[in-house]
Amino acid sequence: MNLKNKTFLTLGLLLGAGTGxxxxxxxxxxxxxxxxxxxxxxxWWLGSAVDPEGLTYNLxxxxxxxxxxxxxxPIYGVKGNEANDISYLSPKWMNMLGHTIAESKRLGLQIDxxxxxxxxxxxxxxxxxxxxxxRVAESWTxxxxxxxxxxxxxxxxxxxxxxTLQRIIAVNGDRRIDITxxxxxxxxxxxxxxxxxxxxxxxAIFSGRTFQKVxxxxxxxxxxxxxxxxxxxxxxxxxxxxxxxxxxGIPYPDSFFNDSYEVYGSDWADNIFEEFERDHGYKLExxxxxxxxxxxxxxxxxxxxxxxxxxxxxxxxxxxxxxxxARSHRHGARVRNQSHGSPANIIDLYAxxxxxxxxxxxxxxxxxxxxxxDGPSRPSDSDPAVLKFASSAAHVTGKKLTSAETLTWxxxxxxxxxxxxxxxxxxxxxxxxxxxxxxxxxYSPKDAAFPGWMFYASINMxxxxxIWRDADALFSYIARCQAFLSAGTPDNDVLLYFPLEDxxxxxxxxxxxxxxxxxxxxxxxxxKQHVTEIMAAGYDPDYISDxxxxxxxxxxxxxxxxxxxxxxxxxxxxxxxxxHPATLKKLLSLAQEGATVIVTGSLPADVPGLSxxxxxxxxxxxxLQAAPExxxxxxxxxxxxxxxxxxxxxxxxxxxxxxxxETLRSDRNISMIRRRNEAGGFNYxxxxxxxxxxxxxxxxxxxxxxxxxxxxxxxxxGLAQTYESEPGTTSLRLQLRPGQSIMLKTFAEKPEMxxxxxxxxxxxxxxxNRGWSIAFENSQPAISGTFATDTLTAWxxxxxxxxxxxxxxxxxxxxxxxxNPTEASDWILDLGDVRHSAxxxxxxxxxxxxxxxxxxxxxxxxxxxxxxRLEVRVTNNQANRIxxxxxxxxxxxxFKDANIASVTNAKTFSFxxxxxxxxxxxxxxxxxxxKINN
Length: 934
What we know:
The chain contains 21 helices and 47 strands. By secondary structure, it is α+β, with helices and mostly antiparallel strands. The chain has an 8-stranded parallel beta barrel, surrounded by 4 helices. It has a 6-stranded antiparallel β-sheet with strand order 17-27-28-34-30-31, covered by helices on one side. A 6-stranded mixed β-sheet has the order 19-18-23-24-26-25, with helices on both faces.
């Protein structure tokens, strides 16, 4: 055994020690799929108008097609169905939940539950005193020496009677006087202004109410949004759930969920002045002129506003997130939380919960041949730089799952295809997501007329959608991927310091700053660019915050480690202006202890905020004396056991790090993620989302004795052909067409495993263009008869008006002859342009489903000499059917509240304006003879 393999074997034994001994077969097998590996779906209960029969039907469909679980989120109801609505958390509602949990246990599904209806948290038991707060400010002017006698109350009539006066401050230049004590019991301010050279301005600050009500609330869930900065209010809100579960005896769900923080305008708290002074040692009220001046953002204002933002962030974490976590854990339930949107460091809020959840929203423009751009869409707000906030927190703190609200507004209603889903999913997988949560599935009674019950936003991943017929293939793909992506430990290359303080300081205007996914480009364009630069250089970053930086330790080999098992080769500090002395001290200490710290662009020059400014700035400057300067040329500086690399930019700093880039990422534009596995090697997920095919030698930046190839689309696996490579790397042959994805598993010792079959051309394709017949297996509206067509055509071109406005499944049948199919190792069936998914049988035997680009399938094993019969059951989406409904004025939009919205955000729209969408097989079908090279 050579030294390299001996090292691998030792590592493999160490990694395996925690998981038990694995047999050779187990090492090379697919990972067993658990319930959590399967995709989940948000299950909207419209009006909570559910019944046992409908619940069982929906759950059986979910289980049959391969979902792993649901999250119950009740929402607004259906018009005219009020008699069947069930009040949230009522005894009857709890009985329906109990039936759902019992049936899910029978079916092997997991039940999660929103901790409210719609979003955000709130409801009928939230009083005005416990509701979300907002700052209300009033001001007056009084001449020097004059007496001011005025009733102090909000000018907004809605705030009168509910807003609580907090402070009255008199301001004249730098003179600030708290005159709150001059307010009489009848709310009249009686105060004489001191002499001065100019008029006095009087500010009165109230803790008002946002009056925000729960959005999309279900019956029994309507009401005010709770005050997230008040632990008493949050606990009182959660008490309602404890009472409902205690009185009903229904078991708690596996997890409670909170949607993205959409508590709009909630910028204040009753005790914010006291909390602010506790945090920063000075009084916010004495800086009201600067704080309230949204047209100005000079240094003083930016510091005061920054301190306010920090206090609000802490209060949200302590009074909401921590309280909610503790209450859920008390009942054995986990917490899944979307931290984005909140006015805080979302990395830290993600890190504080059991399952951090990001969100994919909109559609990415992938350059994949054969991937059809069908209908209107909106640009994606969820590129990897945004998705990584959740996965970074999970990786650094050792959380197994990173969840994602998946495919929200991917397409317009009724135009979703399985093919469009896959590249978005692949991009999420490469960003660290391993727990897909579709958005979503409206509960619909089994006998509901088309299109069934609908949620106002797409997509609809439920039995009422025609894509449901072939969705099991998509779900199997996701399950295989997520089993791979939850095994082992994350292995991202570097940490990227997230400079929240720079973001806070430079964002002027409204002090209340929310980090919602739609404004990330506005909030942090430089940070997103840093992620792009790092990945373009061949590396994969995880974000880290100031708080999580404090948790880092350094191993004997110089790798950085948080509280989880993931380790990193370096931490990158981008050009920042503001930094806490404690953070800089920690970074220098990490270098002293053996870590690599890469500092780029410029060193921090200032401290954030106003509190103890001079003292903290002196501390920072003292620490900076020990830090090397950054020049125009990258340089390595020894620092104790480690080193500090200074560089004008991130790419040049990484070149000196000694970390190997993944050239598949940097040179071939392959999206990817890597994890350490139990076999002493690494698991790779690779997705070709850029449009250029790969067929040849590629190199991995990690060493291996062997590499297994696993195709999550087909379930096939085999040992890759490998080549000699530089020490510390592995070269192998890889075939990856645009749109395809593959998983690699590297081994420290070469296992017993069948070889992977590489596909080589073995002759000319056989086009199957003539002699087709088309018959509709099921269709709305029904279409009878068989249509013979000598030229393969979309069924929307058939001489039947119903075929232009239907949805369903049509069977394309054809017979063809092959003299000797065994002359080729295999035959690849290429269906060309499929609208929109297909199930294939050859000679009466199942060949599989084709649902993603490229639309190909291996069928050689099913062919025979002479006459063969091919049947392709093609299912289209529902666009043509709903367009016909709209044109004929059929009233199907029967839902309350938002009813049905459009991906375009248009206030008025008609799907009847759509052009006809091709359906069926829309191009040439061919059989391609290939040689399998093992």
